[in-house]
Design a protein that fits this description.
8-stranded mixed sheet, 15 helices, globular
Amino acid sequence: MSLNIAKFGGTSVANIEAMSSCARVVMDNNATRVVVVSAAAGVTNYLVKLANEELTTEQTNEVIASIEQIEFAILAGLDSPPQVSVKLNELLSILRELAFHEEILHRPDLKDAMLSLGERMSSLLFAELLCQKGVQAENFDARKVIKTDSDFGQAVPDIALVAQQAEKLLKPELARTIIVTQGFVGSDELDNTTTLGRGGSDYTAALLAEALDADSCEIWTDVIGVYTTDPRITDQARPLPELSFEEAAEMATFGAKVLHPATMVPAVRKNIPVFVGSSREPEKGGTWIVKDCKHEPHFRALTRRRDQVLVTVKTPSMLYASGFLQQVFEILARHNLSVDLVTTSEIAVSLTIDNPPNSVRARLNRASIEDLKEISEVSVEEGFDLVTVVGNNMHSAAGVSSQIFESVKNYNLRLICYGANPHNISFLVSGADSTGVVKDLHRDLFEGN
């Protein structure tokens, strides 16, 4: 029997109407036996607020009421079945208890328990919706299968243990029922709730596809596949019928919001095709991500990743010396800072670090700067965006780079990374310029072709 894993994002399960569209997608594909859902749109943001902000009792109650309004509206669309109402209220009771826990702001384990509740509620409600439509479906606790380490907030799955648990707990049930489970959520060896980090629901779907030897994995969202660039930047962006795993991984890593970078890893390991489409308009098709594409153009897509930090370390002692870069990266590793692009000169090295709101600023702290200052001069610059052209054979084809640089000749490029990978060329530009850069590149590389 063919097996498909279908994942639905937050906007796809935002309300009863959106969920009903997802139910039709599931029912239209007999191969779909596992469904992974995100929290309803808006709920995770509210949960993050409760877990991380110092709120008054009144403010806390207001946030909880906002979550309840979203969940109860979906429940009402299901005619409020008593057994589901009881379970939903149990989850909301846990939420309220955690929100008022005196240590919620200081304990990562409590934060993860809080953040897991959005997915736990949406999976409960979506399983009931399928049942009401005559489909045999069951809500399953993902924490029984997605076993991770205890790095709360960005837990790392134990691939072998996930496969073992899936074989034991999920595979025997697939012929009997559709499993509806939570994305983003796991548990450590002590059964503490963990979360997989930003975009973790995609990762969950791919992990389960790998563990169950699925034939395909579908990522259903609110856009018709993966576009040549973000349609919010230019209305000339168009959906792509296919991408290679390598191209998709580059796009995800460098800012494409449709996919989570880690999603590609399990798919690549098992060569599982991944489909990205719109749950609102499934009839319009989408993008298939496969090992080998029929057509491999030099220019496939453009991505933009905002909020980049540029760190430059400079010292005359670097001249003709060995081991300096090792020292720099050892310091960054100690402070859990992941580097994206690197350029070097005789006496300096510049590197970029992703800085989504309130992340790097908190970690790029005085201690890490002081450690770097022990071996060099250090400067830290902010306000940059990273623009990447994704394609094929970009390092070996004549004329590729000249087309790109001609398009951006009127902009200041702060840093350029080219040649290390045949699938991309990246450059750092001012955040104020990045929209214009993407529009000009898209016009010159993709429009009219």
